[in-house]
Amino acid sequence: MNSQTASHSDLKTSSADKVRKAIRGGLYDGHTAGLAAGKLQCNLAILPKEFALDFLRFCQRNPKPCPVVGLGDTGNPNLPTLGRDIDIRTDVSKYRVFRDGALSDEVTDISHVWSGDLVTVALGCSFTFENALLRSDIPVRHIETGRNVPMYRTSIELTPAGRFAGKMVVTMRPIPENQVAQTKAISSKYPQAHGSPIAVGDPSQIGIADLFKPDWGDAVDVKAGEIPVYWACGVTPQNVLLDAKLPICITHSPGHMLISDVAEDAETTILPRH
């Protein structure tokens, strides 16, 4: 383990390449919200080849929580469409390894579990459009307070494919009431990063019991004059993969994304459109 470390504030103004190098070198293992502004951040799903086609079908049927932005070759840890020097085994600040539907380990390097039959699927992340909100002077509470975004299980059913099925996970950001319409318009321009919100207001309408007890991430305050706004979340495929009880699958830890070299407003979708 490297004796040096880098903090979130140290990396706040660094390029995507420099952030990945810090992660690869063992200098940083924290969340990536607010890092590498302007670059697409990605959720990860790494699974055996025999299950990959059904998983891609699932993603195509549920594009809001599962917008595919990159796909690796079988057994190849590189993602050349997302960056010239990405090694998926080392360039994410924290991973989760699941075996037979149970969390086996949470690590900062997956080189020891990588094998020749694994396929990497990269999915868009809502951290991407947050930069656009900030540029329009729309507050993003978890970035303001140095926290991870709050994430919640919901009652929203997903369209199944093969052994992949489940319910949607969402992120929540408190937005001033007079900026909700603008927020919707801005985020809708980023379909590769979950696009427009799926709900606004009362959390019970989508099955959330308590906003101040998120299932992942950190609780944030909802101030007077603000309204909770909910977006589809890339933790959704993590839950789906968990429920599928694959012999092995690997994901990012919630809030710990792959930072790509692709501009956040670029067209990166690799699935065909009809």
Short description:
By secondary structure, the chain is α+β, with helices and mostly antiparallel strands.
- Low confidence ranges: 268-274
Under CATH, the homologous superfamily of the largest domain reads PSTPO5379-like
CATH topology of the largest domain: PSTPO5379-like
The shape is globular
Approximately what portion of the residues adopt beta-strand conformation? 15-25%
Number of alpha- plus pi-helical segments: 7
Which CATH first-tier class of the largest domain would you pick?
A: Alpha Beta
> What is the helix fraction of residues, given as a range?
10-25%
Task: Kindly provide the radius of gyration, computed on alpha-carbon positions and rounded to a whole number of angstroms.
Answer: 17 Å
How many domains make up the coordinates?
Answer: 2
Rounded mean pLDDT is 91
Number of strands: 11
Alpha-carbon distance between the two ends: 48 Å
Instruction: Please state the second-level CATH architecture of the largest domain.
Output: 3-Layer(aba) Sandwich
What is the H/E string?
HHEHEEEEHHEEHEEHEE
- Biggest sheet architecture: 7 strands, antiparallel
Q: Pairing-aware structural class of the strands and helices?
A: alpha+beta
